[in-house]
Amino acid sequence: MSPGPESLGGxxxxxxxxxxxxxxxxxxxxxxxxxxRGFAPEDVLLEIIAPAQRRVGVRWAENRLTVAxxxxxxxxxxxxxxxxxxxxxxxxxxxxxxxxVACADGEWHTLPARLVAEVLRLRGWQVDFLGAHVSTRxxxxxxxxxxxxxxxxxxxxxxxxPVAHTAVTACRAxxxxxxxxxxxxxxxxxxxxxxxxxxWAGSARGAAERLAAGIAPxxxxxxxxxxALPHLADREHALVDEARGRLVDEVMAVLPERFPQLREYxxxxxxxxxEDLHRVVEYLVAALYVDDPGLFEGFTAWTGRIMxxxxxxxxxxxxxxxxxxxxxxxxxxxxxxxxxAQAALDRELHSPPP
Length: 354
Known about the structure:
Layout: H1 5-20, H2 24-36, H3 41-61, H4 67-86, E1 97-103, H5 111-122, E2 125-131, H6 136-146, E3 150-154, H7 161-173, E4 178-181, H8 190-194, E5 199-201, H9 204-213, H10 225-228, H11 236-242, H12 244-258, H13 268-290, H14 293-309, H15 315-327, H16 332-350
Parallel strand pairs: 1-2, 1-3, 3-4, 4-5
Helix pairs in contact: 1-2, 1-3, 2-4, 3-4, 3-5, 4-5, 5-9, 6-7, 11-13, 12-13, 12-15, 13-14, 14-16, 15-16
């Protein structure tokens, strides 16, 4: 008799406890024992490891895990995935074809892509998992040398959309269809379609089902970025990106005057603040690239919630937006996006608690 869903949920909680304590041995024991007791490897990956890892992200956002703890937990999850992949129950012969799974250039969140790769292997695919931060110049030669049936491209952060677009275009020019996945492509895959991907899947099982159904190779050369996205003709995304370093330096020069508590920042704290400011501008670039002000609004409101959870001065984010508004006042789309984000942040700051 196969184990029931109740025990599966209980094992997820036990696995979560191991993640929370960065206890690699206990985490590996949990998934190995589950497999030994008859749980399907796919279920162990997607019903034990994946939900526990999602909880890691939630706890980090709530300021209940530090960055170091989040990294440690993710490393333990990755080790647990390896334990599942190496287990005798997970040894399935390849019979369906070959696919490549890769993360977009600059994308370091590998666990979602790795879960997809392991599920595809369990479904009978030969999988080349290329891992994190795969540049187009690395990816395309691999496609020419191996001739896969498809590329599954992962993008967890919208800031990687411009380079993901480059990868999608290059893969399709090489005659290989692209299955896009990951939160960076939008909750419903809207950006995947916009950037020319042949298909989109919102989950590992969805990716396996979509590939099993077949994705036809591209029948013609893909359009250039400017042909696919006519709004890029204004070059606003490029102009904002080019000004990013200067803008961050200017903001960091005035922030301590307006928020004296920032004067206490040193070393990593100061570096993290600089990185956060760069990320704000990167999200504006991404929003301009896909012509979606909601992308930047949503990120701004989310950042405000994160800062509140960490008892950081959210008004500092307003100051950043003000500086961006001044720097980009001659760029119509950027100005409109920043104004909308300022309004969204104001609503976030003054809305009553739930």
